[in-house]
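Appendix B.2, paired examples.
Example (i):
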Amino acid sequence: FLLEFLDNTIKDAEEVRKIFDLPILGTIPILDDLEMQNKAKQQKQKTRLRLKEEDLRWMNDMG
């Protein structure tokens, strides 16, 4: 209970709106480490696939 009382961090967008009396333009989602790692792996795979596709197109144009 004491820790909750001393905690002065903002918890959500609605609290920001109430404190600053301003509209919320957007939020940044919180991702855990595993989600971030998975997204990074997916991005690498997409990049590799795109590069392979470009290589195949280039080889097709040359041949």
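Example (ii):
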Amino acid sequence: MILLRSEWKNIIAQNILRFAENNPIVKGSISVKRIVLLKDEIRFDKFLEGDDELKYDFCKELKLGEKRKEDKELFKELDFESKKALFKSVISKFFDDKVCYFRNNMIVFPARFSYKKMDKRDYFKVNTIKLVAKKNAEYTFGVVVSYLYYWTKIENKKFRFIKHLESGVVLEDGKCSYLIEFDRPDLIDESVNVSSTNINIYANSAENSADELINFIYIIIEEKLEKVFKNYNIIVNRYDNKIAEIKIETIDEKIKDKINKCLDNEEIITHSNETLDKRFLHKINEQFQKDKNKVLEKLDSYFDEIKENKPKNNFTFLHLSDLHFDSLNVANKEFCILEKDLELLSNEGIKEENVKFKDIDYIVISGDLSIKADKKEFETSTKFIEQLIEKYDLTPENILIVPGNHDYSRKVTQEAYEVASFSLNEFNPNTDYKINDKLFLKRDKKRWERRFDSFSDYIYERIYNRAYPNDLKDSIEDERFSFLLLNSSKKLDQFFSDEVELDKDDLIKCNKEEKIKICIAHHPINYFKNKIKADDFYKNLNEFNFSFYLHGHIHNSSLIQLSNFAFAVNSTISIGAGLFYAYNDKARVLGVPLRYNIFTLTIKDNKLNELILTVREREKNGTTWMDGVVFYENGVRKKVLKYKFK
């Protein structure tokens, strides 16, 4: 029997935080499934900054290399149930301490973001809240932001939680945007203080509700963070107008010296909170508890799956494209219609083919999530995606999104050009637009490269907690698949409307021979202006062993070169999804119904064994989805494609 060591919980916590901070897909976050997979990957070699007291006690008894090696071996031999109990205890502590929240089936740690600096241009400072607390600054950061998230989600609908930044968060209220910055001196100079935090609040409009936001932050500080101002009285005017005096005269001895160095420079916190009723905290605390229970249930479920050791061999993909939603009401209605259709496919399936599609594993959205790259259009699509994540128990790691030609801002590209007198020396045919022999439009590269900023702000950063990559391509991997997400619209604008391009070099990023590789972009391969480049790209897909190329754009469903791939060996299969929602009559191809795809891949011995695909279609928006025709065989309509890989 192996005795559990008290420090192991701290080690597990540090490993979870380390993974969340370095998560390449969803920044600052970790899925419950990933936590379970960590049970065999726990590192004992180093710590991150964490609970200083725990780290101090552990390091004191540690004899470095030998002790860590011994712990690693003992932990590896630990029985299954003991490991599960340890992990559940750690997760419970995270939620009980209120340093994280649960969103899109991911545990999010607000203090673990390091991907995007705070841009304060166009903002002015409204207030600064100075705090010295018993816990370190990361703890303060986590608690305040986690409460802010739940407050905007379940209590205060005026504010919307927009995104995380390296040192804070962004909120909006419809009239104004707010930056909440955590200025953490302890991370700049640990010799000064490990517990001081300046919370700076910025707004970008004089017409703002910053006072309400500031009041809420004060409430969280007063209720949830132990302040350590020696010999200071903190006067608080509570919601019932009764004056309460909080006296804090003791300081934790282990950090006393560090705190004393900065106490003389701190201000007494005196603040009136009579405008806010603190009873709403009960609702937020209930939500913390509900989410904790949900996570613990998922942990139990995933641990049980691993214990049963039944590998999953069938993976179902929902492939949507060209959403083009024009309002939230439309998106909500379309979600309900899609939900009913997927329920039908799961329960009844396509009877004459004896095929059912159960348990959505991945959702592919191959571009055109908007009409004009408008902020509200993107927000609508984001809410639609989040509904799918919640309904089908997915995470953003299972969501595969690429932009389309409707997803770059034509306003940005228009303003990136300036009229100039024509000169061969000044004119660049690859970036500039010739008006006539005397005039041309000169492109400002930096301004033009911001054309996907709204897509990044309101799609990518909402789903993945990170900005859309500067090189306009991305990759997402898991145990089975390697997905390459390309931007086929990277050279497009209103003056270069047919410059669709995909590059061989892009494929190198996904050169994982041991995994099943799938390339996703908006445009079909045969949409290239240069046919030679199109042929070369298709050949390169084959050479790099891509099994599929998934796309949209043509507002149809198409299996490119159907007759060829049915007889080919190791040939890339190109599958196009149709138009999901027609925002106007011009968006539709005459005589072609609205469509989406759903398909299942069966894997055997780590290789593709079978593809089963069907197309769903309907004649107009807001109506029920029906069986579609995938192809004709000897004049007979086929609703399902079944293809065995050789």
